[in-house]
Amino acid sequence: ALSYAELGTCIKKSGGHYTYIMEAFGPQMAFFRLWIDLIAIRPAAMAVISLAFGEYILEPLFMPCSIPPMAVKLATAIGLTSVIYLNSMSVTWTARIQIILTISKLVAIATIIVPGMYQLFKGKTVILSLSC
């Protein structure tokens, strides 16, 4: 993080990794890094995130049992296809859905934190003194 902060203050151009590599090593290395990112890094990261989505979305449905791998792959494919379709149809709706999902995450986090803080302020700190 400190390295990127220093690079950001030294190199006043936008573009992140691409710009930093272009300034340091030239346009050929920057182009190579860009293509590696587009062909290998981003698809791999998207696959991992999508598989995690498939597992998390199906976990409540298969609660006592393990989730079949084919079901996870199917949920992953449906979720990824839905996101791609939504992004290609309307950027405005995509932004609205992102806002709704962000608000729902914040509500879920507040639902966990607020009662915990309430119990903490009431003096119920037994759980804090337990050790493994």
From TrEMBL:
InterPro entries: AA/rel_permease1, AminoAcid_Transporter. Coiled coil: none annotated. Keywords: Membrane, Transmembrane, Transmembrane helix. It is a multi-pass membrane protein. The chain crosses the membrane at residues 34-58, 70-87, 99-121. It is found in: Membrane. It holds the Pfam family AA_permease_2. PANTHER family: AMINO ACID TRANSPORTER, CYSTINE_GLUTAMATE TRANSPORTER. This is Amino acid transporter. The lineage of its organism: Eukaryota, Metazoa, Chordata, Craniata, Vertebrata.
